Amino acid sequence: MKRFSDGKLHFSTNEKTVKMTPQNTPSPVENPGTKIIPRLIQEEMKQSYLDYSMSVIVGRALPDVRDGLKPVHRRVLYTMWEAGLHHNKPFRKSANVVGNCMAKFHPHGDSAIYDTLVRLAQSFSMRYPLVHGQGNFGSVDGDAAAAMRYTEAKLSKIAEEMLQDIDKETVKFAPNFDNTAKEPSVMPSKLPNLLVNGSSGIAVGMATNIPPHNLGEVSDGVIRLIDNPAVSIQELMHVIKGPDFPTGGIIQGASGIAHAYATGRGKLTVRAKTSVEETKAKKTLIVSEIPYMVNKSELIKEIAELVNDKKILGIGDLRDESDRDGMRIVIELKKDADPDVVLNQLFSHTRLQTTFGVMMLSLVNNIPRILNLKQMMQYFLEHRKDVVTKRTQFDLTKAQERAHILEGLLIALKNIDAVITLIKKSASPERAQQGLQALYTLSELQAKAILDMRLSRLTSLEQNKIVTEHSELLKLIKELQSILADQQKILNIIKKELQELKHEYADPRKTLIADAEAQSIEMEDLIEGGNMVVTVTQSGYIKRLPLETYKQQHRGGKGVIATTTKEEDLVSEIFVAHTHSYILCFTNKGNVHWIKTYQIPEGSRQAKGKAIVNLLELENGERVTTFIPIRKFDEHSYLIMATRKGTVKKTNVAAYSHPRKGGIRAITLDDGDKLMDVKLTDGKQEIILATAQGQAVRFEEGDVRPTGRSSQGVRGISLKGDDEVVGMVVAQKDKTLLTVTKNGYGKRTPIDDYRLISRGGSGVINIQTTNRNGHVAAIACVDESDEIMSITKSGITIRIPAADISIIGRNTQGVRVMRLEQGDEVVSLARVEKESIG
Question: What is the spatial distance between Cα 42 and Cα 53, in angstroms, rounded to a whole number?
Fold first, then answer.
């Protein structure tokens, strides 16, 4: 091919090189039969890709609605049928099956064929395996099957129901890839295989995922459809309860099933089957069934990792006691652990609960279509009607041909002496045949049959057999003709065959269908309410502990260890939050993430906690700078924010109630600026901003106009030199402003000592930042009943009554709040309200 100035590519229809002139005119060629076809490159690419995609859809990835098989499955089964590998015959090496299949029908590689053969033999993959395997065919733990030279296979008995009558011209055969053999385009499929065994596959631009079902239920469903073609899907669901997975499990609720059956697509929540074994010493969770297509060994590994990361709490030991009698995963609980709480954590964080996405996509006349439950059954029924009709016609033709031969033999037996005389006088078999045809008005087949008849057939017994056979054939012919003349008789045959299938192969349902509302347990309902102390380190480790962990001390004490840090790590923040609170996590990039307090791993005082990046989906370089606990999102409440450069912004809290995965925009920041503090208000409060160098400004919150999430904000305080904002409080006149410096000194000052001005001013002196005090570390608005928790960069925390700290004027140094070790400094403080204690 060659591109010319008109943008077209020119293709030759044979393999010879065709010279093209720049004027798009073909030059004379030696072969006058050569034809030049001008095509735009985009048209050629589009057509080629469509051809490729349809080849994948029809010839590889999607099952046929009639037999539920993809081409490779069909070829494997037909290869075994052709080789005589029936269920009552000896096994043969899998390599033999793979080799024959690849040589005759599927030249796409032995691994694809063997993988198909293996899956057809796996009882944990197929609800009713179509191949009976001998040897290692893999396991639910994800173990691979042994090499094909070590395993053996033959058809299962139920698979033969798929191929029965294939030799009676019931289905069309097509040439194989090299025109040396014929292969079936579909199986006769007495078994409703697409629903019974399901199917999954990914094509080009589409995918199918049809769950397996119980054979007894599907058989009853098709019978009900035969009896009442107008039956509704809801009525069919009285018979077909829902999918029935080979690995069992529990489907949570029937609403997802009903939607999938009605529309052809939906989602099913599948849980493992669990039980609790209780002794005096401990409680143990037993997992006896897991969701479909879940790897057991990977599941156990996943649970162990989550326990080690303290994302799942309450588990003391984990082991696999599964054997040939069944699955048994043992999860031993700690002494005080609640089985319901642990189980809900397992369902939330592991594949003990999965979602099965139903997509009932299959090929209908080689066209991919999404079908509902009734449509799938209707197409199967139409296929079976066609197969039974063709089979009956085949049997009728054979019976008529045999009856025709027998009629000739009966004529010969009635005139046996004359027939023998004619044959003896004939010069050759051909003359004898012609004589018989002329004398007794016989057909060529009848005359040949008489000539081929053995003398032993002339005995009285053999003559009676011929008469009896002919009589029975006439009855059979009459019966077959009546079947072909009456569609209801064909439907009755299909019903009878389905009933026989059900009687022979049906088994009890493995998958339970539970009431989702009755079985579902909300995680939050299982978490005991209470206040937790949350600590965060500068390198991004977070943990929570019960408030009672920190006993109250007096002012000037040394405190206790709140967290263990690495030598280079420092504690940056501490706050108190209820276990059921949401924590809005504001980052240095102006985004906000959302997490529940109970989702933060609980640790000991000595533990360093869990990395925040493992709890939140943060971008590269993004870190959390501010945490705001909030019990509920109220349209009458606001979040007011303050940045390091003195900008403030107010936004309705409801704007932050639905964060997306990866966070949402909270505020737009200038270069070099960062969010320092966020407070929850009703929009009518007074705000105090405090700086590192001891300045403070008090202004009405109403001076800040509410704006959207992504707005930038307005000036809150004017800063001098390299000063920066270190904190913000909601000022309450009946309380005092607590200021703590980095060197462990602090004081309380009445709110009224800070005159109310407009936002944007430089403010007044808040505390003297001398060498003794150091810069301001944090501020808080407290009253006499509150308690204060301060934490240092080395992880030391002290909890003291606010009343122990003196109330003195603004322009003072304060008193010692916490005695620090050499080189240590206060980094954060939190207020503990009186009602939070105990």
Answer: 16
Structure tokens, 818: 């916490």
Q: SS3 of 537, please? A: strand
**How does pLDDT run across 775-804, given as a tens digit for each residue?**
999 999 888 888 888 888 888 888 888 888
Tokens of 382: 């139409």
Domain boundaries, the chain: 2-41, 62-189, 273-351, 378-505, 527-836
- Give 155's contacts (C-beta < 8 A, 6+ positions apart): 77, 80, 81, 85, 86, 87, 130, 131, 132, 163
* Fold (topology level) of 273-351: Gyrase A; domain 2 (3.30.1360)
- Map 700-750 to HEC letters: EHHHCCECCCCCCCEECCCCCCCCCEEEEEEECCCCEEEEEECCCEEEEEE
Residue 233 CB burial class (10 angstroms; 0-12, 13-18, ≥19): middle
684: helix, strand or coil: coil
Structure tokens belonging to residue 342: 């642990």
pTM, rounded to two decimals: 0.65
Catalytic site residue from 150, 550, 582, 754: 150
Tokens 């004619």 locate to 422
At the fourth CATH level, the homologous superfamily of domain 378-505 is Topoisomerase, domain 3 (1.10.268.10)
Kindly report, residue by residue over 98-135, the tens digit of the pLDDT: 999 999 999 989 999 999 999 999 999 999 999 999 99
Superfamily of domain 62-189: Topoisomerase II, domain 5 (3.90.199.10)
Told to judge if 150 belongs to the known catalytic residues of this protein, a careful annotator would answer: yes
Class of the CATH-defined domain 527-836: mainly beta
* Mean per-residue pLDDT over the chain, rounded: 86
H helical segments located in 8-106: 41-56, 71-82, 94-104
Structure tokens at 498: 């389905």
